[in-house]
Write a structure and sequence with these properties.
The protein is of the alpha/beta class and about 850 residues long. About 35% of the residues lie in helices and about 20% in strands.
Amino acid sequence: MAFNHLPAGVHDALTPLSVTPVTHSVPMAKNHRSDRTPADPASRPSPGAVLDRLASGPGRAARITHTEHLPPRAGRHAVWPDRIRSEVIAAVQACGIEHPWAHQARVAEHALDGDSVVVATGTASGKSLAYLVPVLSTLLDGAEAPNGRGATALYLAPTKALAADQCRSVKELSQPLGTSVRPAVYDGDTPFEEREWIRQYANYVLTNPDMLHRGILPSHPRWSSFLKSLRYVVIDECHTYRGVFGSHVAQVLRRLRRLCARYGSSPVFLLASATSAEPAAAARRLTGLPVVEVADDASPRGELVFALWEPPLTELQGEKGAPVRRTATAETADLLTDLTVQGVRSVAFVRSRRGAELISAIAQERLAEVDRSLVRRVAAYRGGYLPEERRALERALHSGELLGLAATTALELGVDVSGLDAVVIAGYPGTRASLWQQAGRAGRAGQGALAVLVARDDPLDTFLVHHPEALFDQPVESTVLDPDNPYVLAPHLCAAAAELPLTEEDLELFGPGCADVLPQLEAAKLLRRRTRAWHWTRRERAADLTDIRGAGGRPVQIVESGTGRLLGTVDAGAAHSTVHEGAVHLHQGRTYLVRSLDLEDSVALVEQADPPYSTVARDTTSISILETDTEIPWGSGRLCFGSVEVTNQVVSYLRRRLITGEVLGETKLDLPPRTLRTRAVWWTVTEDQLDEARITPEILGGSLHAAEHASIGMLPLFATCDRWDIGGVSVPLHPDTLLPTVFVYDGHPGGAGFAERAFHTARTWLSATREAIASCECEAGCPSCIQSPKCGNGNDPLHKRGAVRLLTALLRGAATEPTEGTERAGAG
């Protein structure tokens, strides 16, 4: 959970301020160079045949709850705009691409017209080429300018690995263009001796939002010639910029635009996104500019067979004697083993680094029992590896030397691994957009592909494998971000003022929240107004006020106790739950136990160990309502959205067996409470509704608690969040509402937009929650429906049937979905 990330005095000073669906597009084949095309697709087994073999083992067929067949599709070609330089077209053709897909040509046309544009098409649909061709053509034009350095372009990627991968692609494509195109990666790993050359001579700089925020913008005088000539800003994988991180990036881009204007440039923004709902609206929120949308995917795709797979129940018992399913990790390792034995090139996506290593190790162990020569053909791939290690794994997978890879999402974003036959996804990745992104890693050369989603033992995954329409008949999600969040806006106003004094004319660029935040920054003596401008008052760097990827604050250093070696850091907001005493910590494939956490010095001491368990923190939470922005009647109850203050305390942690998930024990912790001001959605029920639902006082707390857990588990289906991004509280009699109340809140200061999205989709969200609980096959509640892995009360009390009856009564009086512009109907 995220907490205070501003300097002393600012957190207390700030008070938080108060979708048209599109059908999803399935991952498609890429028009990349022909010499990288894998073996003839006709020689490969069909995806249906591969799935039949996977299902042939004992009890396997019953684990497939649904199979979706997506037919192949032919591509539609076009011609490049006549304004594209002939040398660039020739370079593209030299890579084996005779003609662009229709959407690529449209993107290039808009770029040359000076229109900011977002291309939102499926995986492997050639988005990179769509923006690269106009950029390279413009750089070539600029290289012939008689004076100055010529045109420049800036590329932003969410990860350093993706920027490095793109730089290699640009160098390969632009090699026939000579020195007219000079690409270079500029990030935290760039040697200092190379940085000055890049500032002076590179005309295509590839970096990430973090380096732009901390390195480039604060040093803008040294980048003046680059910024003066900036024609294009490419924002790759822009759907990843969501929530608080996306809100920070939106303000970083506004700072960039302000400095460009200072140097006389007005760059065109070219954005690439996985298929998403309302991509133009999301791109407008991110950049603050009008953006044209190109979402008609003209690339071809092969057949895709998509199976939903539910692991079986085991004889083990979890909390309160609940049945426990076989873990998605163990099931995925079995599937990867079987696919490797079949000779099927596969990637298994898993959410954690430890999970990737574990699946790889289990698969290698089982392959050794079949054929020892197969052991070296399976490996793990995750963040934390050296770049050369990642490239070697990618090459080995592409060549067929590797048949199986257990990977984190480090492989999800843009890395070209064409030639795969199958993808196994260990647990729903949080959004439909990410699901299709991962599934699209297979079939990237146009051949048929198999994708298998293996359900984890939680409410959302269980719901999805039994309600395939929620995946296959629904649009992908809208990107949720809120640049006006005062906790985001405040440090960026300070950073902007440090870059150039902030004037009245600048305020429109940064949004309407400036009027409320600026006086508070003045009162905190961070900014001082002189005549018509605000100035930064401190000696330290204003850009250091916030960490755009986390809660900020002083990071906790993770130190190996025996050697004093610094292993890494963790955000201050996450430290209580991730590096508490006794926590299991993973670093570069090694496992450590946290021996002590010193909050005053922000140091966690660890030592290497190999425990047979993982740890999960437990916390308790109380909540108070600060302001109700909007409320609507739901029968005699109410649905509300507004600002709240949450007091949270990590009180213990569970030890869970690695393979089975079995709870081995709970250990108490003594950590201080923390407060968070954020945004929440909440609903109340009245005595009449409780009577209607036959909810007695004895089961009221358990019914509310069960409904809260399940609704948190289901929200990622309706907002682009993870269940760990949000929190909840249920109270039989809340002091502010004087009624039984359930809250779901954003786990970030000022909110991240998730609770607001929940408010606007509340009827469908809570209907799906009720269905998930009611359809679960357990008797009294389990992790698949109402038990939560992070419940501070040990999942007690919970009442499954009461939750179903309670939600039924509540939804009977539910209004239609509130519109995004719903006016405030009252205060509470």
